[in-house]
Amino acid sequence: MIRISSQQIFSGGINRLQxxxxxLNNTQQQISTGKRVNKPSDxxxxxxxxxxxxxxxxxxxxxxxxxxxxxxxLNQEExxxxxxxxxIQRVRELTVQAGNGSLTxxxxxxxxxxxxxxxxxxxxxxxxxxxxxxxxxxxxxxAIQAFQQDxxxxxxxxxxxxxxxxxxxxxVTVPISDHGKGIFVNVPAAVTGEHTTVNTxxxxxxxxxxxxxxxxxxxxxxxFPDDITVEIQAGGNILAxxxxxxxxxxxxxxxxxxxxxxxAGVEVSISDAVPGAxxxxxxxxxxxxxxxxxxxxLIAGLESIGKTSAQGAAEFDDLxxxxxxxxxxxxxxxxxxxxxxxxxxxxxxxxxxxxDDSSVYTNEIRSxxxxxxxxxxxxxxxxxxxxxxAAQQSFAQVSQLSLFDRL
Length: 407
Prior knowledge:
alpha+beta, CATH 1.20.1330.10, 3 domains, five-stranded antiparallel beta sheet, four-stranded antiparallel beta sheet, 8 helices, 13 strands
């Protein structure tokens, strides 16, 4: 026979009541929080998996914020470039209008006045800031205004050539900025010519244009030359050499007054005089010019070039033709950048979709592990309350038993 003391009865009863009360409190906590696992001891395996899922959700949320930031920056840049294209298109329309031979000097000055307004408008667009106040086209130098006027009033780029990159997923990065030098400054310029060595003072070069780009590329398959030198020799023979000193084919090889000739696919005219032996002209082939410089030169030409002489008229015509080519190149440069931005924005959108799907999937798994089944929990609560109440009543009756009651 096993003897059980009154102390054992009391201790066992109290321990059982505490255990039942603890279970009841745990169930009440689960119902109040809506979570099946509130602490690791509730389900150690599930708690470990929930911790990893929480870390995954935190990672996804961080990348989702980066995706939002990248999308905002790229949308702002795309909108800014669209405004730039509109401004340049208006400048081009004014340039075509300025080329009308029936315009008076006052008409041209009126056009140049609007061009100045458009130039300032383009500068304001190129100096756009983001939500944090940084200039979006200054590269890494976001605190520095991208374009500023120098002492002569010309707009010059002040930023660097840095490109900011943002990570939007593990191992996935996307550029979120572009420097203004690559968009507005390094624009391919029209082929131009200048009288570099003067023998006949009234000789001038005009009508310089690329008429056979395939020929120019065939002559220089890797890259265009920096310049081509054209020398009129005795007897009118034309000697053309590139920057490397190689002699180029000229058609026709002999200069004829007022008649154009072609060298490496570039057509040239030397007008209004028969150049003397030793006259040298330079063709600028592989030049770059900022869109600001193009508009500034156009304004200066409209306000200074007279059309009363044949040379003045030729210079004005060349100004209009070169400006149109440069403006078209500037628009093409910006449109190419817009196309590139479109690819980046598609990549950002694809990553956003992937992250959203990943977040939904992770939350579903986490919910299965952590979320409470309320019907089951309420049923358990009712049962545990009943068991605790029965145990309390049983303990109350047992605790009153004593041998002295039987004596």
